[in-house]
Structure formats: structure tokens, C-alpha cells
Predict the 3D structure of the following.
Amino acid sequence: MPAGCVFLLTDYGYGDELAGVLRAAVVSAAPAAPVVDLTHGIAPFDVVGGARALARCVPHLGPGVVVGVVDPGVGTSRRAVAVEVDASPRYLVGPDNGLLMEGATTLGGPRRAVALRRSDLVTVRTFDGRDVFAPVAAALWAGADLADVGCAIDVDGLVGLPDPVLQVGRGELRAEVTWVDRFGNVQLAACPSDAEAAGLGADGAAVTVVIGGTREQAIRVASFAGAGSGLGLLVDANGRLALVLDRSSAAQLLDVRVGDLVDLLGNSG
């Protein structure tokens, strides 16, 4: 029986009809399918940013099918794939360019995968979201098996992305900036267990933040308000360490962007 929703994440933007046409293609093939727009605001061609956003989303979605489209290689030899996992949502559909794998790994890892078949009726190769991914997602939502929509491929051959930089030592931690949200909060490629392994202390502990030649002092806090008028280091909603200011932009204060490296030093650093 059909279950759950079809979830959409793309870099199509909101300024033209692409996202709406993608939704319409899903509903045309599966009129009863609830469609949820996770975001269409991924930066154009930003596969890494899309992959990380998808990984942040999938633990909260429940049953259904995810369609991810950030696809600068559309129309080339890159594969179109559907991936099955043992958790919910059960399927992820999109280009085999690394976009889907972090989300699949977050859900326990890919169990099966297929390379999608392109309909003989589809003559253009520049809108796979509409012409390939949406019909497949609708079919899977309606109960089709992977074997009905593609040819089996080895899950070990699916394209992944490099892990972000994370180095943990005694009294110090180096982590890559993986996300800057619209509020200017700076998410790092580190978890609370990494901070514990580095000996950076618990809530209230002082931490030195080093970016290039710049040093700032931060306090480990449990909330944005806990940072007061200064820089805070907290565990964000995704279970990652993040540098924050209360109602202001830590990214602006620190002059950092995604991909920059941040060193966190304990009192002895």
C-alpha cells in the first residue's frame, strides 16, 4: 500500500516554474501522493551543500521517497539512480554524483540500488527531475519495487563525497565548517563526543577559537541565549558543534564560510 510522502530537495530555486513542474510531475503520476518541499534553495550546482542538507533532513521525514536534484552533470554519462535503505524514508532518487549518499548513510547505508531506465518517450536530456526522477519516485511511492524501475547496480559503486576535515588531539580540535545557516550560525564537522575526546570541557568552559591568524574566545553553552553578548559553542539541532551568537551572525563576526577550517583549543591550548 502507498505510504508516506514524496519529499523534494533541489537547487531549482523559487524564481521560475521548475520546482512547480517537478511537483506536478509527481502528482501527475501519483495523484494521491502527498508532496513535501524540503527546499529548492540549494545554491546552484552545489552538490556538497545539497548532500549535507539532505543528510540533515532525512532523520525527521518518516515513510516515503526522497527526490534529490542538484545535477550539474544532467545529460552526461552520470547515472540516474534509486537507492533503497532499511529505514524511513525507504528510497532516495536522484543523480549518482554524491548527492544521495550522505543521506543514505545517515539512514543506515544503502541496501540496494538501481540505475534508472529512461523512457523511450523522453527525447530531451536536460530536465531529469521532471522526466526521470519524478515518475520513478511516484512509482516507488505507489508500491513498485526497485527492479521495476531500473537495473541492479553494486551499492559499493555509488558515488560518494569526501569526508569533511576533522582532527582531534589532546586539548585541541580542528574541524571544517560544513554549514552556515541563514542566522549566521557556523556548524562544524564535529560532534560533542569529539569535543569530549579533545578535552574541551563541558558547559561553561572557555574555548579559544582560531581561524587563520584570528583568535576569539568562546564559552560552551547549551542555548543561544546562554552565549550572552559573546561567542558561544553549542550542540545544534543536528547534533553538531556550532559557533553562535545570540541574535547575531557568528559567521560575520568570524569572517568564515563553508569549507574554512576552525581550530578549537582548550584552556591549555
